[in-house]
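Retry 2 of 3 after timeout on previous attempt. Resubmitting structure tokens to design endpoint.
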């Protein structure tokens, strides 16, 4: 049997106090540990309670709010006449508005757009600060003058802001209000010029309310097919052959058909080519009807316009027709087009390039015939880079005995661009263009322009 271990006598006095100390501290350590664990468990329980309350509140809000009205696609590439007035919207959210119907949802959006252009016109310069310096305006192309040096313009006046409110009743009725502005509104006061502040006034673009199939207020004319417009760096691009009008109206849409009664206005050219002026003497509104068919292949649209022209006691009537659409050539290419023709189409075509009516020798009104159109090819190189090539033209059937020789006979434009999106909703683009305007007396003028843009949508 091995001998029992023995400790030296001097060691025992040292171990005994240590053992006694540990024995006395053990209950306190256990008590401290229990207190910390209890405190931690209490905090966890409180967090679990807060999470449960937040989940319950979120579920109650979702159950009480109606489904949001689907947003329209891009402002100038949509496929419905009413929806075309509405830019792309982020997810709307319920907001507290004391005067609004319960459950109304509010959305806001727009874009910031910076433009820089260099222009060279061979028959004189476009006047500084006018619309023709900001975007392509066929009527502003100088003719009959002397060429000069190129000129440069910067601007951000086409930046845009919109707000919309959507509400759906318990019975399923859908009501929407839409308000949109940009800053293409002059601002030529002492402090609002290019010397100091570059101020531009707020311009009303859209202001309408829609209720199910009805729309009332200002938006794109039902005679205009915004979904056919190509993507341009310029404000419009194919201005020469485009129907482009925003005005107050009452519209009804059902299926592929839409009908409207719109604000009337008559533009008149005095006999012999004198002054041109506007008349608001109309009794009847402008009436439109549109049929539009959509599919995976694209869309096609046919629209008719009936108008009364009136100036004082004199009146006349006229009609116009528009055929337009977009045809998908493949996953990366599409073709967009429009052809517009009519008697008295002047106010609707190419930003009012020609007058609606001419004054006969006896003072009666004679509607002026005109035609315009465009074709554009779009190609996407990849999801970030795309290009557009477009041609537009317009021509008027002037009776020079009534109009004189100083009136525009025709215009045309050719342009090409590259647009790159390095990030979602951020576009950087460059566009080159050539335009020409001819008068009945044979005078003509050309304009060449390089335009760049940076645009961020939100």
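Retry 2 succeeded. Sequence:
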């Amino acid at each position: 049997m091995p001998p029992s271990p023995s400790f030296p006598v001097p060691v025992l006095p040292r171990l005994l106090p240590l053992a006694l100390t540990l024995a006395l501290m053990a209950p306190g350590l256990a008590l401290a540990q229990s207190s910390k664990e209890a405190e931690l468990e209490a905090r966890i329980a409180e967090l679990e309670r807060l999470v449960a309350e937040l989940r319950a509140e979120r579920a109650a809000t979702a159950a009480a709010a109606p489904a949001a009205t689907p947003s329209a696609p891009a402002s100038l590439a949509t496929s419905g006449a009413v929806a075309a007035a509405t830019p792309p919207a982020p997810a709307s959210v319920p907001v507290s508005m004391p005067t609004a119907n319960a459950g109304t949802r509010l959305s806001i959006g727009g874009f910031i757009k910076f433009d820089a252009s260099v222009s060279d016109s061979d028959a004189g310069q476009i006047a500084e600060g006018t619309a023709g310096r900001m975007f392509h305006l066929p009527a502003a192309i100088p003719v009959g003058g002397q060429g000069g040096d190129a000129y440069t313009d910067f601007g951000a006046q086409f930046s845009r802001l919109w707000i919309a409110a959507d509400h759906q009743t318990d019975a399923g009725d859908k009501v929407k209000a839409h308000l949109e502005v940009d800053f293409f509104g002059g601002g030529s006061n002492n402090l609002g010029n290019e010397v100091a502040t570059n101020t531009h006034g707020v311009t009303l673009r859209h202001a309408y309310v829609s209720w199910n199939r009805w729309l009332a207020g200002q938006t794109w004319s039902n005679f205009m097919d915004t979904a056919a417009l190509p993507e341009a760096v310029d404000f419009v691009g194919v201005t020469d052959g485009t129907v482009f009008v925003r005005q107050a109206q009452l519209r009804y849409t059902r299926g592929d058909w839409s009908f409207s009664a719109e604000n009337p206005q008559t533009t008149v050219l005095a006999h012999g080519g004198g002054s041109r002026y506007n008349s608001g003497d109309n009794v009847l509104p402008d009436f439109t009807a549109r049929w539009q068919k959509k599919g995976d292949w694209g869309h096609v649209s046919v629209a008719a316009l009936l108008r009364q022209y009136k100036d004082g006691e004199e009146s006349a009537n006229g009609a116009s027709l528009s055929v337009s659409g977009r045809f998908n050539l493949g996953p990366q290419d599409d073709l967009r087009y429009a052809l517009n023709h009519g008697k008295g189409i002047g106010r609707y075509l190419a930003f009012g390039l020609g007058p609606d009516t001419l004054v006969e020798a006896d003072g009666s009104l004679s509607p002026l015939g005109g035609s315009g159109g465009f074709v554009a090819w779009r190609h996407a190189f990849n999801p970030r880079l795309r290009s557009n090539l477009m041609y537009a033209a317009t021509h008027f059937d002037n009776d020079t005995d009534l109009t004189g020789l100083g009136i525009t006979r025709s215009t045309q434009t050719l342009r090409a661009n590259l647009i790159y999106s390095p990030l979602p909703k951020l576009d950087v683009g460059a566009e080159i263009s050539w335009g020409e305007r001819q008068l009945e007396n044979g005078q003509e003028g050309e304009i060449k322009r390089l335009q760049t843009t940076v645009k961020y949508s939100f």
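Attempt log closed. The helical segments are 12-64, 131-134, 400-403.
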